[in-house]
Structures are given as structure tokens and as C-alpha cells.
Design brief:
Structural class: alpha/beta
Number of helices: 19
Radius of gyration: 24 Å
Number of strands: 30
Strand order of the largest sheet: 5-4-17-16-18-19-20
Largest sheet: 7 strands, mixed
Helix content: 25-40%
Shape: globular
Strand content: 15-25%
Bound molecules: 5'-O-[(S)-butoxy(hydroxy)phosphoryl]adenosine
């Protein structure tokens, strides 16, 4: 799997990089972790500085910048209004239909303030959680920033999720107010976001206000006592373009973001104002090497952590100009992305292996139609990038002059954890080495480091400012999931298998728990299985991941039908559609196989690894616990 070839950055890149040397600064950051992070925190403005950099008295509930007063919006917007950045473009947005909207920092401040005042007028207060369910339009970002500004937390639910998934998240967050849109455009078609919201809140009594932004102009159902058009509200005198930024404690909740785990219930990970500001902006500045002249494009959805950290917060804190695109990469033609790179002069592009593979499939002539020489740096995130895709990205998109930052991190970590810097010699498929302040290891079940080149569990040995502080409503699960396994050592356990080579480079293999990565999206087998058994004809089911050329992994399902029923092609299609409906289109299974029995342990747990080994024709391994 490993590719031994090394790709060295040019002298030009090395000379211009924001960080010119790794080893010395890394050593310093490990030996003086708190001092290192304090120095990074000094780059930002604070209403009041910290009494203590790190409070580790109540592990694993670490607190960063204790006693400090801040608000991420002060650093992302307010402080820029006092400098020339005020008139710089903050956001360039292109709709799938070609609409173009731009906002300077000055204009962004006005839009965010208006939305903040609208939220306030609906009774949103400091500490409330607002659910945001939107397409990729500027108002999605305004809504997030508006919440933060008034001290409310946001819970962004990805626009591809179904009514049920949405409902579960609204309930857990107890969101009284939801911000949405009538829809967005995807491959030329409007997506029915508002009707999904309507369906979801039909089933619960938590929500009493829905604010809807008009995007597609499609007809939607609005209930008089609950639904408001944003364009009506924003024209009222209450929606003044001036709004005070709320003073927050460093460890007050900025947002919660749900992600899949090994059990059925999604986890609402909590991130805070202080530590998260410092961690995301530092990694963005050092790894992505942002300069005042850059045009930064993180082609993720703001609905995922990548979007929260590197579309919204880090670029704004660093005063960058960011680009955001609404729709599909191949609409109307497979050169859409490259056309936009050329048109807007994008200098840094951060995307996922699955997007690279998708565009690679159309061939390089689509890329070569455009002058994309403005690009100087590339990035990858979400799953391991296969060397073939890496090399295509490097050669065809980067023209062999743009280093690729393959960044390993998670919703839980808040920001980049294993990553190269522009000066780092690269190996295709390796996320290289730890970011400053972080110590990693690959260990066995007994917390012993495995030999170099051997497979083991990835662990992080230290706290860092971007780390999630807990799971909303479930502290025990936070401890159980991430800290229990290496409790004695006090290590964080991300749930990934990895190898470390002789050069100290890390190679991520994949998840060790029941989490499946499909096109970089994280799905729990338990969630898929519970969607399956909610289908009338199915008695029991198991979901596994098998390699897929484009998606990285695809979901394959084994289902036992209720007595007396037999499987058919037709039923297979119905089951697939059912899962897509319950969980959202990303969870649609690749195949459904009807079986009489599932391999189980004597205690009744489904042995997914046995199903997987059989499907791949591999050795089934230790079967001693398999029930006869
Ligand atoms: C899981 C976290 C971080 C934003 C997007 C994903 C996998 C992530 C890489 C990478 C290999 C990667 C891991 C991780 N992953 N980046 N560069 N190389 N694997 O966030 O949805 O929380 O998923 O994604 O398995 O645990 P997420």
C-alpha cells in the first residue's frame, strides 16, 4: 500500500512559507505546550486574557484559556473592521445557477448583525441552541455567525439529511428556533429543504419558530403561527445592521455538531469559543500558509466540521477571502470547478479524496481547458487518499508545483491534527506528521507502541485547544468513547487504525469501530441497521463497508426477512430506497443480500468482520466466539 516515493517542495515554496522549519518548532511546542499555545492565542484579541492557559484538574474535561473573555465573532469580524481588511472581500459565493454574491468584511458584519437581531426578536438568548438546516448559500454562514455573535450555539444539520435524522438532532438540542431555506440547487434541481423541516417538526413539539430564506422560489407550505420568511423579517426595523457582540467565557459553547458513532444515537460534540478560535486559526495559518493575497476555497459543506472550521471560522479569523460554491462539481459540465478556480483566481483548494476521484473519472482534458495556474497549495481531508488519486491531483490540478496537505482530523478534534506543512517532503497517501503541540503513537491493546510499519491503534497523548469538550447531554459517553480505552495513560482514542513508518510518517488505515466512511461521510452501522429494521419486511440486518473505487467505501447490507417472505430484485430496490429516505441519500446501500442467518457471537453480537472477510474472500480470522 505504501508508496516510498518522496515529493519535495520547491525552494520557492520553502522560502515563502509561513513556517520555515518543522523540527525545532515541534520540539519547542512539545516541551512548552502551554507556552506555545499561549503565543498563538496572543495573535488574537481578547476582551480579557486568561488566568491560566490549561486547566487539567478534571480530566478528560480539559479547559483552555481559563478565565478569558472572548467571542469568536470579535476575531472573525469585529476586529477586522478597524483595519484595511474592512474593505476586503470576506465571501465570494457562486450559486449553481451562476448567481454571484460578494461580501466585504464590512458587508458581512451588517448581514450577520441583521440576522442576529432577527434571531433576538424571536427570543433567542445566550445559551440557546439554534438548528440550522440550509443549502450552501451565504445565509447559512450568516446564521452560524449570528448565533455566535449573540452567544447562542448553533447546531448545523447537513442539508442532505432526512426528516428523521433532522428530528433526532432537533430533539436532542431542544432547538426552539430553526433557520432554513425553501431549498437549494443541486444538479439543476431544487432540493426540498422546507418540506423536510415541515415533516420533521410535525413529529415534535420543540420548535416554535422557523425562519425561511428564499432561495429557489419553489412553493412551500408556511404555517401562520410558526413560519416566517427571512426577507420579511430582515426588512423590519428590528433587523438593524448594528448588534453588540456578546461577551463569552472562553469555554462557553460555540456550537454542537452531530456525528455518527458506534451506537445508533448521533453524538452532539460541543466546541467552545476560546480554544477553538486559537486552534483553527493557527492550523489554517501554518498549514495552509494563508497570505493576505490568497483566495481560499474549502470545497466542503458548511454542515460538516470541515466547513465549520475551514470555510467559516478559521478563514475569517485570519482575514482571508474565501470562496463558496452552492452545487454539484460536475454541473452543468465536469469543468465547473476549474472554471471557477480560473474565474476567481483561487490560490488554495481544500477538498476530499472522493471529490478528487470523482473529477479524475472525467479525465484531465476538462481540467486543461482552464488556466488554473493561480493555485499554489492543495489540501485533502476525510479519508485516506489513495496514491493514484494523490498523483492525479498533484500532476493534473497542481501541475507538480502545489504541495498537497493531506490532513487527518475529526469532528471531535476541531482542527487539523496529523498534517504536513508546505515545507514537508510528502509521501502520497500519508498524512505525514503531528501538528505542533501534539504527540501521537500507534499502539496495541496493552498501550505498547507497535514496531514501525505494523498496524495498531492511533492515539493522541495530550490535550489541544481545538478538542471537543464533551458530548451534549452525555458526558459519560464522551468519557466512554474517547478516553476509556487508554484511561490509565490518559490518551485520546480516535478510533482509527494506523501505521507509522521509519521516517515517523503516519499512514491511516481506517476506522476500527463500527463507523463507515462513505465518500468521506461518517455513518454508523448501528444507524443503518436501525433504518433497515424499520422496514416492515426485515427482521434483522447487518451493514458492512466494502471498498469502492469512487466512494472509498460503500455500504453492503445483509438482511433476514420476516418469516414467510422471500427476497426479490424489487424488494432489494425498495430496501435501498427506504434507507436513503430514513437517513438521507448518502446512506443508500450499494447492495442488499437476503440471507437466512447472520454470523453472531455466542452473546448474540453480529460479527461484521466475518461478513466482510467472506465478501472479500479473505481469511475469516479467529472464529472461536462464533455461534454454531
Ligand atoms: C474520520 C473523522 C475532519 C473532517 C472530515 C472528517 C477519517 C479524516 C483523514 C485523512 C485518513 C481520514 C478518519 C477519522 N479521516 N481525514 N486525511 N486520512 N483518514 O471528519 O466525519 O469526524 O471523520 O475521518 O477515519 O477518524 P469526521
Amino acid at each position: 500500500m505504501e508508496d516510498s516515493s518522496m515529493y519535495h517542495p520547491s525552494e520557492e515554496i520553502k522560502n515563502e512559507a509561513n513556517v520555515k522549519e518543522y523540527e525545532k518548532l515541534y520540539k519547542y511546542s512539545i516541551e512548552n505546550r502551554e507556552k506555545f499555545w499561549e503565543e498563538q492565542a496572543e495573535e488574537l484579541e481578547w476582551f480579557k486574557k486568561w488566568d491560566k492557559v490549561l486547566d487539567d484538574n478534571n480530566k478528560p474535561f480539559y479547559k483552555w484559556f481559563v478565565g478569558a473573555k472572548t467571542n469568536i465573532i470579535h476575531n472573525a469580524i469585529d476586529r477586522h473592521l478597524k483595519t484595511a481588511t474592512r474593505n476586503k472581500l470576506a465571501v465570494i459565493w457562486e450559486g449553481e445557477n451562476g448567481d454571484l454574491r460578494t461580501f466585504s468584511y464590512h458587508a458581512l458584519d451588517r448581514e450577520v448583525s441583521k440576522m442576529a437581531n432577527v434571531l433576538k426578536s424571536m427570543g433567542v438568548k445566550k445559551g440557546d441552541i439554534v438548528t440550522i438546516y440550509m443549502p450552501q448559500i451565504p445565509e447559512q454562514i450568516f446564521a452560524m455567525l449570528a448565533c455566535a455573535k449573540i452567544g447562542a450555539a448553533h447546531s448545523v444539520v447537513y442539508g442532505g439529511f432526512s426528516a428523521e435524522a433532522l428530528l433526532e438532532r432537533i430533539r436532542d438540542a431542544q432547538s426552539r428556533v430553526v433557520v432554513t431555506a425553501d431549498g437549494g440547487f443541486r444538479r439543476g434541481k431544487p432540493t426540498p429543504l422546507k418540506s423536510i423541516i415541515n415533516e420533521a417538526i410535525e413529529m415534535c413539539s420543540v420548535v416554535d419558530v422557523v425562519i425561511t430564506v428564499k432561495r429557489t422560489g419553489e412553493e412551500v407550505f408556511m404555517r401562520n403561527d410558526r413560519d416566517y420568511w427571512y426577507h420579511d423579517l430582515v426588512n423590519l426595523p428590528i433587523a438593524s445592521p448594528k448588534c453588540e457582540t456578546e461577551v463569552m467565557n472562553s469555554d462557553d459553547m460555540l456550537f454542537l455538531l452531530y456525528t455518527s458513532g458506534s451506537t445508533g444515537k448521533p453524538k452532539g460534540l460541543v466546541h467552545t469559543h476560546g480554544g477553538y478560535s486559537v486552534y483553527t486559526s493557527t492550523t489554517h495559518r501554518m498549514v495552509f500558509d494563508v497570505k493576505p493575497y490568497d483566495r481560499w476555497w474549502c470545497a466542503a459543506d458548511p454542515g460538516w466540521i470541515t466547513g465549520h472550521s475551514y470555510i467559516v471560522y478559521a478563514p475569517l479569523i485570519n482575514g482571508s477571502t474565501m470562496f463558496m460554491y452552492e452545487g454539484a462539481p460536475n454541473h452543468p459540465y465536469p469543468d465547473r470547478w476549474w472554471k471557477m478556480v480560473e474565474k476567481y483566481g483561487i490560490t488554495i483548494l481544500y477538498t476530499s479524496p472522493t471529490a478528487v476521484r470523482g473529477l479524475m473519472r472525467y479525465g484531465e482534458s476538462w481540467v486543461n481547458r482552464h488556466d488554473i495556474s493561480s493555485l499554489r497549495l492543495l489540501g485533502s481531508v476525510g479519508e485516506p487518499i489513495n496514491p493514484e488519486a494523490w498523483k492525479w491531483y498533484y500532476r493534473v490540478v497542481g501541475k507538480e508545483k502545489c504541495p498537497i496537505m493531506d490532513t487527518w482530523w475529526q469532528t471531535e478534534t476541531g482542527g487539523l491534527m496529523l498534517t504536513p506543512l508546505p515545507i514537508t517532503p510528502l509521501k502520497p497517501g500519508s498524512a505525514t506528521r503531528p501538528f505542533f503541540g501534539n504527540e501521537f503513537a500507534v499502539v496495541d491493546e496493552n498501550a505498547q507502541e507497535v514496531k514501525s510499519g505494523e498496524k495498531g491503534s492511533l492515539v493522541i497523548k495530550n490535550p489541544w485547544p481545538g478538542m471537543a469538550v464533551t458530548i451534549h447531554n452525555d458526558e459519560d459517553r464522551f468519557v466512554e468513547t474517547y478516553w476509556k480505552k487508554y484511561e490509565k495513560q490518559g490518551w485520546y482514542h480516535p478510533g482509527d487504525a494506523a501505521r507509522k513508518d521509519e521516517d515517523g510518517y503516519y499512514w491511516i488505515i481506517g476506522r476500527t469501530d463500527d463507523v463507515i466512511k462513505v465518500s468521506g461521510y461518517r455513518l454508523g452501522t448501528a444507524e443503518i441497521e436501525s433504518a433497515l429494521v424499520s422496514f416492515d419486511d426485515i427482521a434483522e440486518a447487518a451493514a458492512i463497508a466494502l471498498p469502492h473505487e469512487l466512494k472509498g467505501n460503500a455500504i453492503h447490507v445483509y438482511a433476514i426477512l420476516k418469516a414467510g417472505l422471500s427476497g426479490s430484485r424489487e424488494l432489494e430496490v425498495k430496501v435501498k430506497n427506504h434507507v436513503a429516505e430514513v437517513m438521507g441519500p448518502i446512506a443508500k446501500p450499494e447492495s442488499v443480500t437476503f440471507v437466512d442467518k447472520l454470523p453472531k457471537t455466542r452473546s448474540g453480537k453480529i460479527m461484521r468482520r466475518v461478513l466482510k472477510a467472506r465478501a472479500l474472500g479473505e481469511d475469516e480470522g479467529d472464529l472461536s466466539t462464533l455461534e454454531e
